[in-house]
Amino acid sequence: MVMKFFTKLLFGLLFFTVPMVAEAQVGGPAPNFTVTDTHGDTHTLYQYLDSGKVVVLDFFYTTCIPCQYYSPQVNAAYEKYGCNTANVIFMSIDYNDTNAEVTAYDEQYNIKFPSVSGLGGGGNGVVNQYGILGFPTLYVIDSSKTIIAQIDPPTLQVFDFRFQQHGILPAGCLSAAYEPGLHGNLQLFPNPVAAGGNLSIQLPEPKLGMARFEILNVMGQSLRKGQLDLNSTLPLGSMPNGLFLLKISPLEGGKVYMGIFVVE
Question: Are residues 50 and 132 in the same domain?
Fold first, then answer.
C-alpha cells in the first residue's frame, strides 16, 4: 500500500517534470487502443466505434476514494443503458494496479462491465494516451471517433442529461430488464414502495444477518446509513418520493450488494 502511494505520487509529479501527451478534450479526437481486460478478453476502441457503438471510458484506480464513491452511479448507468448489449459500451481503464487488485475492486463494488488493469491489461498506456490528470475521469466517445462528452460528476442524473443531449436512449439488458427490483444483485420489495413504508431485502445468497446499509440519491449523495438486521425490513420513514440506490455490506467487510428502489 505504501509503495503504491509513492508510485501514484511519483506519477503525479511526473506531469510537472517530463513532457506528457496533451490531455484529451471534449470535441477532440479519441486515440485508438487495444487492451486486455481482467477476464482475458481483448478490446479495440475503434472496432466498437466502427460498428456504430458509443463507448464510455471510466478512468480510475482501486484506492481512489471518489472512484469508489461514484461506482454505484456508474453501475446504474451501465444497466440503464443496456449492460453493454445495446448501443453503449462501458469500459473501465485502471492506472497502476494489477489484474488481481482490479478483480478484487470489481467484486467489492459489483462492477459488471469490462475492466482493464494498468499493469496487466495495458491501462497505463491508455491513461498516458489520453493525458488523464485526475480520477475518476469519464469520457463518452461516438462513432465519429470524437470525445462528445465528459460525465462530471459521474452520477446517473448527469449520464442521463449528457446522453439525452446526444440522442442516446436507455435500453434494457438482454439478461434482465432495467426495472426496480432487478437492478444489480439485490431484490427489493415491494418496489415501488409507498412513502413511509418498509422495504424487504433479498440477497442472492443466504442472508447475512446484521449488515451495514447506505441509501444514496441519484446525485450520489448519502441520505441514510447504519446497521440493519436483514431478517427484518428496512423502515423508510420520511424519505421523499424518488429513485434511490441501496448498498448492503457485511459488518466485517466484503462484497457490496446494490439495488435500486422507487418511493412513491
Answer: yes
Residues 85 and 54 in one domain: yes
Model confidence at 171, pLDDT cuts 50, 70, 90, reads confident
Structural domains counted in the chain: 2
Is the pTM higher than 0.70? The answer reads: no
pLDDT of residue 102: 97
| CATH classification at residue 89 | 3.40.30.10
Asked if residue 7 is part of any domain, the answer here is: no
The answer to whether residues 161 and 236 belong to one domain is no
For the cut 50, the answer to whether the pLDDT of residue 17 exceeds it is no
Q: Confidence class of residue 216 from pLDDT cuts 50, 70 and 90?
A: confident
Question: How would you write the chain as a 3-class SS string?
Answer: CHHHHHHHHHHHHHCCCCCCCCCCCCCCECCCCEEECCCCCEEEHHHHHHCCCEEEEEEECCCCHHHHHHHHHHHHHHHHECCCCCCEEEEEEECCCCHHHHHHHHHHHCCCCCEECCCCCCHHHHHHHCCCCCCCEEEEECCCCEEEEECCCCCHHHHHHHHHHCCCCCECCCCCCCCCCCCCCCEEECCCECCCCEEEEECCCCCCCEEEEEEECCCCCEEEEEEEECCCCEECCCCCCEEEEEEEEECCCCCCEEEEEEEC
Residues 110 and 22 in one domain: yes
Domain span at 207: 187-263
pLDDT exceeds 60 at position 9 = no
Do residues 142 and 205 share a domain?
no
